[in-house]
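Example with several molecule types.
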Amino acid sequence: MFEYMDYNIAPWGHEIVIYFFLIGAAGMTFVYAAAPVVFGNVFGGAAKSMEPFQKVGLIASLVLLVICGPLLIMDLGQPGRFLYPILYFHWTSPLSWGSLFLPLFGLCIVGFYYGLMKDNRSLMRWTGILGSLLALSMPLYTGLDLMVNQTRELWSNPTIPLLFVILSMSSGTAVVAVIQLLRGQLDQRAAEFLHAFLYLSLAVTFALFLAEWVVLNYGTGEKQQAWEIINQQFAFKYWGMTFLIGILVPLVLVAIPKLGRDPKILTLAAVLGAVGAYSFREVLIYAGQLTQINF
Amino acid sequence: MPVGLQAEPSLGVPGKKRWAMVVDLRRCIGCMACVCADKAEYDVPLGVWRTTVKVKDTGHYPNTKRHFMPRLCNHCDNPPCVRNCPTQATYKHEDGFVLQRYERCISCRTCIAACPYNARHVLPKNRDRVKIGGVVDKCTFCNHRVEKGLTPACVQTCLGRSRIFGDLNDPNSEVSRLVARHKTVVLKPDKGTRPQVYYIKPDRAQTEQVFSAPQSYAARSDAQAFYQHNRGSKFFSGVL
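Resulting C-alpha cells for the full complex:
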C-alpha cells in the first residue's frame, strides 16, 4: 500500500516545556517569599513562618526568572525581536500578555527585595501584592497559551490554565522546601504551612488528572486519538512519572497525618510533585501537537 | 463575531471580495505540478511546503483506489493563527487573504500550533538567494499575482484544472458556480475556522481524522522522520 504525505515541522519542543515549568516555579517561589507581607495575620499568621525564606526566596525566584527569560528568547527564530510582542501588542494573544507581565514580574521581585533591604513596608506590600498576582499570571498565561488553540482539543480545555497554576504550586513548594531543608530552617511551623499548600495542590492535580481521563475517554474522535497517543507513546511519562511518582505517591505521603508534616518527608513529596508537574506539562504539550497531522 | 482580526470576514459581504479556492478531486491526477510551481514561485526550501498533495491508497487488490488530496492554507474567515499571533505578524487582509509580515515575525510558532491544517512552516535562517529566513511562512494564495489579475501559481499550472480560484462574493465567478452546483466540503468545519478551500467529492479516507491515519510503513517512516526532526525528540506512536 502506498501513502505519501509531507509534514511541516511541529512547533514546540523541550525548551517550551522547561520554560513552562521554571516560570511556574519562579512565580510560586515569589508568592511564598512575599506571603508574610501579603497575607500578614490571615490564617493565624501562618504565612509569617516564611519570613526566614524571604531574602533567599526572592533571589531564587529572580534566578529562575533570569534562566527563563533568555531560554524563551533563544527559542524564538528571531531572538532580536523579543520586544515585538510588547511593541506590537495583540490583545487576543496570551503570549503578548505574558511578554508584558514577565518583565513587570521581574520588576516586582527587584522592588520587593529593595523594600526588604530598606525595611520599606509600604513598598513591600504593594510590590508583594502586585508581584503575587503577576506570579500567578505566569503559569496562567502559559496554560492560556495552550487553551486558546481551539483547534487542538487536548489543549482547548478550560482546566488547562487552572492545572498549570496548581502544578506551579507543587513545583514552587519543592523549591522552598529544598532550600529551607538545606539551610536547616524548615521548622515545624514552616512545614505545616507548606504541607497545607502541597496537600491542596496535589489533591487538585489528582482531581484534574481524573477529569482529563474522563474527558479524553468520553470526548470526540480527536480526544480519543489524543488518549491513544498518550497511552502508547507517553505511557511511562503519563502513568509512571506523572500519575504514580508525581501525584499518587506524594499525595499518599502528605495525606498521612504524622508522616506528611515531617520536614524530610514533606520535601521528598514536594520534589516528587515537581517531577509530576514537569512530566504532566511535557505530555500535554507534546501529545497536543500530534493529534492533527494525520490529515 | 470573530475577535482579534485586522479585517472582518468578507464572505457574503456586498462590495467586498472573498478570494477562495475550489479543489475538484475528480480531476486531480497527483502530478505534483502545483507543489513544484509553488516551490519555484517562492524558492521554497527543501523540507518545507506551502502546498502538498497527500496520496493514499485504499482497498485490497484488485479493488483498490488511489486518492489525491491537495493541501494548502485554507485562508480561514476566522483564522486562529491570526488571533493568537503576539505581534500581529500574521494578519487578515480585507479580501480574505491570511498573510504574513516577515519583518515583524518573531517565529514563536504560536501560529503553527494554532493551525489545524499543518499549513505553516519555519523558513531556515541561511538561504542562498532569498534573504527571508528564520520566520514563519505559509501559502498566500499568491496575492501578489492575484492583485495583478493573475491566478495563483498552483492554479495556473494545474494540468487537470483541479484547482480553481476566484471571488466567492461574485455570483458569476467559476468558484461560486462550482460551490453552488456541487456538494463541497471544507476541512474540519467543526473547528470554527471557516476555511475557504472547498473540496469537490473527497473520500472519507482523506478528510476524516480517524480514518485518514497513515497505514503504510513508508508513511509511518515519513511521520517519524518529521518528529525526529523536531529538536531531536522522537515521539511517535503506533497511532500513525
